[in-house]
């Protein structure tokens, strides 16, 4: 049965009687032409970008599903802080590492009549800190363009366009600790001891959670998959935002040069760049194993240490103009445990293929680490979820 | 950086005057044999921002040396556009002047040149993405730069009026609002000689 036929049948059923399967609709998107060879219940583990995208597509296909999220909030590594500045902060994923039209591809619904505003993130004034002085690196500017949301955030985007599809089918504070697929149905056990049954399982938790064995599988994951998990590096992750009375910093400071190892792993950047803001908010992005000793400390110690770093760069002005800060330590998040996948040891595509292969034929995997073309990105996580859902429903 | 660029320009501007004085003392000085060259080239600013450029160096004086070698003082306007689709579209309007060193037997020439341009950059400051259609509507803001440059160009005259050239130039984007940044440009194109002898 083709997706279009399925939807037409479902729509007719909803009109004619109480036999309809969910709120299927015709969005006219690329994901509408798809053959569904599955009739059952899906449980999605994780309500990050991949989990919410999976729910969005399952809802569209009229499939019965449930999302179980361990944390008390949706988003995973996409998170928003409001009230700190005069614009909402992306304290998790922040940049769109693709063309702006990617957002429309993700929504994939021609009936949506809304726009989102982005700013091209191409900083003009760039400096590199070599430990002694700040060197001008403005020449980097023409080679670097990404995008950021202007008035909303990645979280706001997910909340507005993807989370509503899972209303009533999302359970927060529900940590899955065991997935058993030995019976006729998959049985998921939560940390509270509750059991949930499903025909298919889609695991979208951060790879670090799987690497640390925080979810047990019966039958156990095979050696090849375990080895593949070990070949993906997920370093420590930290973001900090400082509010200053005045601006004394350039658009971007690379801690190290752009061509030096680590130079793009730790950045201080003007978080208000091209945003409608009167505030002076400097962000720190640090995704590196070098951050491991730092993320082991408490938030106030981390902030104080970074202020010292900034004082060295800017002759004490950071402490002088400091008004406040917010620390987001991703390594300390109990259900995240780190940043995102960065490097693969060995053959990347082969490792991804192994990780994407369903476990025991009924447990599927998705997330930023499993996106061939868009690894380490929010949209990559979402596209990976779309891909996994289609494979899951294909039989 | 801007100070270094200005100093370099001053040095380069003075050196042709000295060369001119020497040439006048030693060699035959006369009007230029060709009145005008029309050049159309493709170029890449910062090596990654493609564009088109039209320039018309006008020969002002030629200092011929025995054996057909010589040098020609030229100056002329240039107009170009370049951009990065995700970021900006820019208009470049200015002038170049310099010396062309001729090697008639091989029909080759080398040019050392200084330039001064105005660059108007229509920078995309924000864009709206329609989530239903994917249409992107950019909002732009004009930024202005003064761009002093130094350049080198190598070319070859064809047997007729058409020839070709490649060149490189460097300088600085100088503006009031921003710190100066590096200008780097490579160019290749065709030239047509108008007027004068073949």
Describe the structure.
The complex is a heterodimer of chains A (395) and B (198). With 395 residues, chain A is an alpha/beta fold. Chain A has eleven helices and 21 strands. Chain A has helices at 3-16, 49-60, 102-107, 154-161, 207-211, 223-230, 292-295, 299-313, 317-321, 348-356, 378-393; strands at 41-45, 64-68, 80-81, 89-90, 95-96, 115-121, 126-129, 134-136, 146-149, 170-171, 176-180, 186-190, 195-198, 200-203, 216-218, 237-244, 252-255, 266-270, 280-287, 322-329, 363-365. Chain A has a seven-stranded mixed sheet. In chain A, strands 10-2-1-14-21 form a five-stranded parallel sheet, covered by helices on one side. A four-stranded mixed sheet of chain A has the order 13-12-11-15, with no helix packed on it. In chain A, a hairpin with a 7-residue loop joins strand 3 and strand 4 (89-90). Chain A is globular, with a radius of gyration of 22 Å. By secondary structure, chain B is mostly beta strands. An eight-stranded antiparallel beta barrel of chain B has the order 2-3-5-6-7-8-9-10. Chain B is elongated and about 70 Å long. The interface between A and B is medium-sized, with 32 and 27 residues. Strand 6 (115-121) of chain A pairs antiparallel with strand 7 of chain B.
Topology:
The complex is a heterodimer of chains A (395) and B (198).
Chain A lengths: L2 H14 L24 E5 L3 H12 L3 E5 L11 E2 L7 E2 L4 E2 L5 H6 L7 E7 L4 E4 L4 E3 L9 E4 L4 H8 L8 E2 L4 E5 L5 E5 L4 E4 L1 E4 L3 H5 L4 E3 L4 H8 L6 E8 L7 E4 L10 E5 L9 E8 L4 H4 L3 H15 L3 H5 E8 L18 H9 L6 E3 L12 H16 L2
Parallel strand pairs in A: 1-2, 1-14, 2-10, 7-17, 11-15, 14-21
Antiparallel strand pairs in A: 3-4, 5-9, 6-9, 7-8, 11-12, 12-13, 16-19, 16-20, 17-18, 18-19
Helix pairs in contact in A: 2-11, 6-10
Chain B lengths: L1 H25 L1 E4 L4 E10 L3 E7 L2 E7 L5 E15 L3 E16 L4 E23 L5 E21 L5 E12 L7 E14 L4
Antiparallel strand pairs in B: 1-4, 2-3, 2-10, 3-5, 4-5, 5-6, 6-7, 7-8, 8-9, 9-10
């Amino acid at each position: 049965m083709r997706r279009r036929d399925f939807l037409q049948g479902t729509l007719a059923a909803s009109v004619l009687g109480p036999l309809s399967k969910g709120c299927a609709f015709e969005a006219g998107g690329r994901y509408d032409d798809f053959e569904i060879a599955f009739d059952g219940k899906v449980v999605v583990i994780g309500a990050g970008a991949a989990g919410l995208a999976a729910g969005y597509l399952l809802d569209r296909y009229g499939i019965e599903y449930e999302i179980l999220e361990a944390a008390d909030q949706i988003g995973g590594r996409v998170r928003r802080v409001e009230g700190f500045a005069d614009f909402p902060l992306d304290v998790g994923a922040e940049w769109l590492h693709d063309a702006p039209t990617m957002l429309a591809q993700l929504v994939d619904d021609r009936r949506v009549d809304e726009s989102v505003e982005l700013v091209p993130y191409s900083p003009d004034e760039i400096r590199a800190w070599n430990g002694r002085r700040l060197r001008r690196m403005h020449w980097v500017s023409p080679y670097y363009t990404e995008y950021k949301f202007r008035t909303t955030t990645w979280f706001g985007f997910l909340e507005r366009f993807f989370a509503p599809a899972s209303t009533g089918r999302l359970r927060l504070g529900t940590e899955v600790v065991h997935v058993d697929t030995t019976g006729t149905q998959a049985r998921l056990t939560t940390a509270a001891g509750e059991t949930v049954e499903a025909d298919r399982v889609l695991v979208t938790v951060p790879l670090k959670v799987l690497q640390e064995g925080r979810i047990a599988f019966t039958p156990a994951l095979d050696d090849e998959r375990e080895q593949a998990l070990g070949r993906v590096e997920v370093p420590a992750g930290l973001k900090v935002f400082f509010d200053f009375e005045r601006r004394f910093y350039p658009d971007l400071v690379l801690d190290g040069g752009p061509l030096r190892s680590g130079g793009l792993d730790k950045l201080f950047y003007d978080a208000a760049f091209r945003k409608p803001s009167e505030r002076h908010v400097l962000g720190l992005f640090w995704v590196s194993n070098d951050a491991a000793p730092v993320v082991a400390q408490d938030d106030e110690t981390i902030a104080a240490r970074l202020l010292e770093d900034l004082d060295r760069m800017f002759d004490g002005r950071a402490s002088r103009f400091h008004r406040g800060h917010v620390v987001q330590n991703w390594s300390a998040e109990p259900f995240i445990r780190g940043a995102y996948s960065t490097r693969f040891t060995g053959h990347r595509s082969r490792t991804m293929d192994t990780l994407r292969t369903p476990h025991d034929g009924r447990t599927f995997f998705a997330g930023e680490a499993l996106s061939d073309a868009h690894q380490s990105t929010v949209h990559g996580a979402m596209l990976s979820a779309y891909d996994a859902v289609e494979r899951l429903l294909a039989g | 950086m801007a100070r270094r660029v200005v100093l370099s320009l001053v040095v380069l501007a003075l050196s042709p005057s000295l060369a001119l004085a020497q040439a006048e003392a030693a060699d035959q000085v006369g009007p230029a044999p060709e009145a005008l060259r029309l050049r159309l080239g493709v170029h890449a600013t910062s090596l990654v921002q493609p564009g088109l450029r039209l320039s018309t160096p006008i020969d002002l004086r030629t200092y011929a040396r025995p054996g057909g070698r010589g040098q020609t003082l030229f100056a002329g306007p240039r107009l170009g556009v370049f951009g990065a689709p995700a970021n900006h579209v820019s208009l470049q309007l200015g002038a170049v002047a310099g010396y062309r060193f001729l090697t008639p037997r091989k029909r080759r020439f080398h040019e050392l040149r200084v330039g001064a341009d105005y660059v108007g950059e229509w920078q995309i400051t924000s864009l709206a993405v329609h989530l239903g259609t994917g249409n992107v509507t950019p909002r732009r803001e004009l930024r202005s730069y003064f761009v002093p440059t130094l350049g080198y160009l190598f070319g070859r005259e064809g047997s007729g009026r058409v020839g070709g050239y490649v060149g490189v130039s460097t300088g600085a984007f100088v503006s009031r609002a921003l710190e100066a940044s590096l200008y780097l440009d490579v160019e290749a194109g065709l030239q047509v000689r108008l007027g004068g002898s073949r």
